[in-house]
Amino acid sequence: MTNNEFEIEKQNKESYQAIEVTLKRVSTQPGFVGLVAITEKGQIIKSTFEEQEEAEKYALYLSHFIKQASNTVDALKEGDEVSFLRMRTKREEILIIPGDKYTLIVISDPNRIKERKF
């Protein structure tokens, strides 16, 4: 294993551990439905959904949405970047936290949320 491969593997392990810590924290929140962590290309790193198709749906559509939002923000204010997106519908609330190594997508049911702690 080369030094570069070792560094990439180390970074991936650290990223995965960070995802696990976040998952433990948000999964206890009222209304939590699921979490999907994706790469910049929309590949799933981690998902809590039992149905793989459900996770793939969120990964596919929201990765495009994130790219469009990032392009829009950069066009409005060059050099600026998206740090957090929140989308609420009648049935779901979707929190999107883009990062350098991965993007977290947290889905919750707003009808079951009484008091959020995150």
TrEMBL record:
Family matches, as InterPro entries: Roadblock/LAMTOR2_dom (IPR004942)
SMART domains linked: Robl_LC7
SUPFAM superfamilies per record: Roadblock/LC7 domain
Pfam families membership: Robl_LC7
Domain annotation Roadblock/LAMTOR2: ranges: 19-108
UniProt cross-references to Gene3D superfamilies, sorted A to Z: Dynein light chain 2a, cytoplasmic
Membership in a protein family: Belongs to the GAMAD family.
Protein name: Dynein light chain roadblock
Organism: Anaeramoeba flamelloides
